[in-house]
Amino acid sequence: MYRKRWLEKKLIKLVKTRPVVYIGGARQTGKTSILKHTFPKIRYISFDSPTERIRALEDPKGFLEAVSTPVILDEIQYVPELMIYIKMNVDNRRKPGMYILTGSQQYTLLKGLSESLAGRVGILNLRPFSTREWMKYNKIGIDKLIEVACKKNKGVPIKEIYKSMLTGGYPEILGNASVDLNNWFASYISTYLERDLRVYLKVGNLRDFERFMRVLAIRAGQLLSYSDLARDIGIAVSTAKEWVSSLCAGYQVLLMEPYYNNLGKRVIKSPKLYFGDTGLLCSLLGIRSVDELSRSPYLGNIFENWILLELMKSDETEINSGNFWYWRTVNNTEVDLIYDNKGRLTPMEIKLSQTFKSNWISGLKSFISNYNKSTNSGIVVNSGEHGKFNSDICFYNVRNWLKK
Question: In a 3-state reduction of DSSP, which class is residue 99?
Fold first, then answer.
């Protein structure tokens, strides 16, 4: 049964205003489902089908001429040759909603989209379900966290949060309580490696790449050092960069860049690494139950990863979404997350603990002091404290996240 997605509103608006709309996202996030549900009368063609793929590859121009618009072209990355002819058709008779494209591998595709269809294409990212989205709750934007933090709520048991972290947000898992998480993710990883990486990346042994993913999972929520990663795996630095890039292209991991401006303050410029789904992350780490998760040495990093994804999923469905950064100086003063919306900055610390520690707010205070004129109140997401700390900082208890 189809479950409504937060992205629908933004999707419909783009289809009404842009001739081409592209929805990217990892496999199994529901790209096909949202399109078939939202636009049931539009013809659907999937290039996962070898027959359709061969037809399009042999004669891309003729293929498109035989297809009336509007049309949904699923997994467009298999036939990038179509892009130039899509551009020609759009330029010849530009109308909103001519082509709706999906893809589960970015690689050179997004570059081609932005270059050949600049001003013509609207680009969306469909991630796995947010926990609140699956529960049919309203979105909580970052701008609302301060307001919500001032309201008294009892909150759910922390194990409810752990359960959401463990399962992640893939629709098939959430919609079927009998699914064995370990088997599902093992199959998912195998399919991803065989169907996508074998096509786009020259990996001598796919088992080596799966091992690489597991080693990468240990680094979730941390600064990424390609040289350290390459040394630990026993591969060249260039290979480590290529493999991480391939995972980013497949929407499996994401890299968060540091925030800095021209104030001259030196910052660490390595990216932070996160996974696109905490269920997949837990599986790669060998975590199979809530009890194992609660005792895992990686719990804090998984929690930070989960909070980031929940916030991104909510924000990306807005018409005017923002950007996410982190902040860390060479003196190790840091802020876990900086939300940047049109130049207004909201610094956030993410701490799983229920017990307040002074270092929770030291980075926030430093950041606010440096960027005072463009900074909103700072937020500490945790599992205990709740409410205003002072005029600059408030606490948000994550156990209220699953409240309506």
Answer: strand
Return all residues near 390 (Cβ < 8 A) that are at least 6 apart.
none
Tens digits of residue pLDDT in 295-323: 999 999 999 999 999 999 999 998 889 99
Helices 31-38 + 8-17 axis angle, to 10? 60
Write the CA distances from 49 to 45, 108, 249, 356, 378, integer angstroms.
9, 21, 22, 55, 49
Q: How many whole angstroms separate alpha carbon 383 and alpha carbon 135?
A: 20
In the structure encoding, which two tokens stand for residue 183, read together?
A: 């088997």
Q: What's the burial of 111, exposed, middle or buried (CB within 10 Å: 0-12/13-18/19+)? A: exposed
**Nearest by Cα to 39 from 65, 64, 21, 60:** 21
Q: Count Cβ atoms below 10 Å from residue 337 Cβ, excluding itself.
A: 23
pTM: predicted TM-score of the whole model, two decimal places:
0.94
Beta-carbon neighbour count of residue 118 at 10 Å?
9
| Residues contacting residue 14 through CB under 8 Å, at least 6 positions apart | 21, 122, 124
DSSP three-state, residue 174: helix
16-26 tens-digit pLDDT: 999 999 999 99
Amino acid (1-letter code) at residue 215: V
The model's confidence at residue 175, banded by pLDDT at 50, 70 and 90, is: very high
